[in-house]
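Internal ticket #5521
Category: modeling
Description: The requester needs a full-assembly model to guide mutagenesis choices. All entity lines are attached below as received. Residue total reported by intake: 611.
Assigned to: D.W.
Attached entities:
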Amino acid sequence: MNFVAFQMLTGDKAKYFGLIFAIAFSTFLMSHQVSIFTGLMNRTQSQILDIKDADVWVMDRYTQYLDEVKSLTDQDLYRVRGVNGVQWAVPLFKGSTRAKARDGVFRAVILLGVDDASLTGVPRKMLLGTYNSLREPDAVIIDQVAFEFYFPNQAMRLGDTLEMNDHRVRVVGICDSAAPFQNFPVVYTRYSNALGYVGRERNLLSYVLVKPLPGVTGEEVATRIKAATGLEALTYEQFGWRTIWYYIGHTGIPINFGITVFIALIVGTVVAGQTFYIFTIENLKQFGALKAIGVTNWRITGMILLQAFVVGAIGYSIGIAMTAAFFETTKNVLDLRGFVLLGEIAGGTAVAVFLIVILASLLSIRRVLVLEPAVVFRG
Amino acid sequence: MENTQAVLCANVLKEFGQGENKTPVLRGVDYGVPFGEMNLLVGPSGCGKTTLLSVIAGLLDTSGGKIEVLGRDLSQSGEGERVKFRRKNLGFVFQQYNLLPSLTAAENAAVPLLAAGMKRKEAVDRAKSLLSTLGLEKRLNARPNELSGGQQQRVALARALVHDPRLIVCDEPTSALDEKTGHAVMELLMKAAVRPDRAIVVVTHDSRVFDFADRISHMNDGVITHVEVKRR
């Protein structure tokens, strides 16, 4: 009877394609919007992700997220270094300033000042140059977005200069950094230089990056630092999630994306459900005939579910392929980097489509189950 | 003693609705259809013919009385048993054919075999063979909308016969057909289905087919009023 179910489904091409379109559209909207959302949330922790050397970030105890920095004192750095289990601890400056090109083009940039001696926190994925060049006087490493902005339509090269807070700096490397939330250019320099590139404050130490001793976990050393210094200490994963949760809790982003995903879910369910229901109603006499002939209710339920799963599987495949194609074609667009279709999102969307298909078929199944086979004898 | 009756109804009652809205449709039907015969059930509209046919086919429960079909007491059978019983023993011919529009003639005729779990190829081959004997050998792959009314009714006939049922129930099989086609369908029905171990019950208004009957049961107001025995 599976064959009969399949033939019934594909017999009416308009409804068949209508069902597939509804599921595909719904799949595309859900997977695309969730991918953009997760990409955006991931961007909020971009600098945390980029710094691979340290396991623990130490910050002011009231810090809510990465970009909201309250400076620590140099004394704090020494206190952290004195905590049992700390292998090393280095300063990190994170702030923003303006960088201006020679032709006057300027833009706000994210400035990261890494430890002068160890260069801990410097980007490891270099597109041009080496990170060790940062040891040269007035050296900065900029990311690709910065280069494209200040030197548009030019081949990547080193040696250009920028002006930051009346200091002339020289580009010694171009790196591939994770996209920040607002897609600002990212500039790396040594900690001591960074302090000069921004306006003076009494304290400019943003974070202390910590490496635990071998055998000591990040969580353990973070707990010890908190107890010993009163500062907040988080592993990079904890800090990343704290930043993400800040944006989820304090911006309208999740609500907006949530509404879109919810609408996609509702539209998919309603359109697919309605089309499927009409399809069933139009075939009610045929289902009645099948029941009269001796096809059981279980078999008919199976036939309807098979029809629903066929359109679900085809619609999902088309929709998810559209999403994958979108991100594949935009992966080299700098402003859209970091947005990808994750396996988890594809899997989650599959579960949502499964729910749509189940909901869409429930009404139809109920209608057929309560159908008296004697209906076939009514003209 | 061998059972000679394919259908035996004794004081069968059927009511629709509940309470004050209860409407009796069958008011104590006594009715029998011997094996090897074609029995026509006739009467005015609303007299209960179709309800009686539905009860005989196990599509409706009775409200009282006893009904035995092919030796089985259907009034004592559950829904699941009745479904299995219908699948194995009954063939249906409907007024509006009720063919599945997306299946070919051969696939439509094969549906009872598919419902019984037979492999598709084997079922369709068997249906094709039967359709050929009914004169549709050139229309095996046509869909219902490509067939005339008479051809569609022949496909429906093949569907009713393909699994070799012992009781065939027909609801107005010729009412949508012209006289010539109606006669042809009845002839085929008689030729293919009337056998000593089988019986046919036909509900009809169509007096043009009365000559095909072995027996005509007249019904009025929910009861069989008289039975006319014919000689073909």
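Resolution: model delivered.
Comment from assignee: Strands of chain A lie at 56-59, 86-100, 106-114, 126-128, 139-143, 161-164, 167-175, 186-190, 207-212, 232-235.
Ticket closed.
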